[in-house]
Design goal:
Helices cover 79% and strands 0% of the residues. It is mainly alpha-helical. It has 2 domains: 49 residues; 57 residues. The radius of gyration is 20 Å and the shape is elongated. The relative contact order is 0.08.
Length: 119
């Protein structure tokens, strides 16, 4: 979703780049800022994913927070029925529901142990 926003904004501003150095410096600075922001976001998501794979409760809690914030940020676009926004909202809602299930909570709280039954 961020890529769609960035590409739309950059394509509009790229047309202005021929008008002078101020716009070029602005676009270069904007590009660096967006790169850094998206890189930090990707690193946070990678750490959360690794934490979820290791069944860490802090990763579950932060994923719930990020999914909830994801739904909140998509609400304005849901009103206008953007198909990708609806898809991302449904995926975030599915993640929230799954991570809030009692069985999932128990697994991350390490109350449930996996048993291997001899076959």
């Amino acid at each position: 979703m961020a890529i769609m926003f960035v590409s739309g904004m950059v394509s509009r501003l790229a047309a202005l780049a021929t008008e002078g150095n101020a716009v070029q410096r602005f676009l270069a600075g904007l590009g660096r800022f967006l790169f850094a922001a998206l890189l930090i976001y990707a690193l946070i998501m990678a750490v959360l994913g690794f934490g979820l794979l290791l069944a860490q409760n802090w990763a579950r809690t932060l994923t719930i927070v990020f999914s909830g914030l994801g739904i909140l940020t998509l609400l304005p676009r849901l009103i206008h029925h953007h198909p990708l926004s609806v898809l991302f909202a449904i995926l975030n809602l599915a993640v929230l529901i799954y991570l809030l299930l009692p069985e999932t909570r128990a697994y991350f709280d390490r109350k449930v142990t996996l048993e291997v039954k001899p076959g």
